[in-house]
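Q: Sequence in, structure out?
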Amino acid sequence: MNLELMLPLFIYLVLVLGVGFWASRHRAEGNFVQEYFIGNRSMGGLVLAMTLVATYTSASSFIGGPGAAYKIGLGWVLLAMIQLPTVWLTLGVLGKKFAIIARRVNAVTINDMLWARYQSKAVVILGSVTIILAFIATMVVQFIGGARLLETATGLSYQQGLMLFASCVLLYTIIGGFRAVVMTDALQGIIMLIGTGALLAGILVAGDGLPNLIHQLREIDPKLVSPQGADDMLTQPFMLSFWILVCVGVVGLPHSALRCFGYRDSKALHRGILIGTVVSALLMFGMHLAGALGRAILPGMDSPDKIMPSLMMEVLPPWLAGVFLAAPMAAIMSTIDSQLIQASATLVKDLYLNYLSPKQEKLEVRIPRLSLLCTLILGTLVLLAALQPPEMIIWLNLLAFGGLQAVFLWPLVLGLYWSRANGPGALASMVSGIVSYGVLSQWGIKLAGLHAIVPSLTLALVVFITVSLLTAPPSREVRELFEQKY
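A: Exactly. Output:
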């Protein structure tokens, strides 16, 4: 075991645990559900920006994305920049209106908003089941990424790395709740920025500058420096699909949309859009360029997912590599904690409180204990599932992302902006979206060469509009709530 690498990482893990313990002190200040699941809606602009960026920037972005760039080339770097406006889209489309309505109906979860809009138990139950299943799949990806990172960089076995990583992230999430999640996200966002910049600088120095690195890539395979990428993978249908999947469709990701509940005021929203867009651009460009140029530094990698930690070991001094090992670790942890806390909220708030809870006077004691227990059980299940990892984690992550988008994108967006949207239309859209996405993905069917998410979202939109127009409109009270000027 390399102690020079482990010491800075250990200090970082202790730091995030400290944030969790600090956040736990706020629980006594207010309602447990409001504090534990959305932090009493107190985020400022910097924290809002960093938590959105950190939540979206996951193992897929910091491990799988650079791995894909390593394999495909500079064309993947250009493709990755499609993700640039994700923060602007999420906060711009959902932000203000979402937050105001959420406060009026006292919404704590995405399904609270769906219930307020559609008044349909079926919509809430389907949404809850989708969130839990998809989040388990994506959290498995993050656990695998964290374990592989520690395995590659520190000499720990995969199982040892998995246990160390999982124990830390579970502990601070269980202890601190949403407030710990967003505060550690802010810390992790800063670390990701510093780490990405340092790694990219180290690669440029080790490779004798950008022109020489590009020349070496061309020597390995001329297509590594072409827009189409190695094996001409980046076709127009693929790029359109990727744009929908990782940019436009991100508005429909529940763990990103939930961030619109927790900011403090309009000033925080506007500042969050600006800071988040700049930080997202720097991270996406830096990490994917590092992965692509890494092919010239380490041309014989057996697993593309190991390129980021391997590059850190290769181009940085051991002690500095240990410091910046925390950058991809931060990216992974920031996504797990967000999904873990929301999956727990879905089980406790959307299902237990609404359909299974006993007499109301017992809830003050039951809910805190049940919330902590659900978070622990979900984390343990994900840990067990991560013991058998697939080869390239980016595809599993994108599969789960697409499923969430197929279910939630149109109910969230049309629910806010189309007065005629109703419960039957939302339910039909969710069912048609997830069924078509599952069928197309399972059988590898690509209509016109497009990823399954494009026809699935198209079908879900058509079904939503058609069914809504053919059935009764929403009640006057619902229309008044969602049509007010904000």
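The mean pLDDT is 81.
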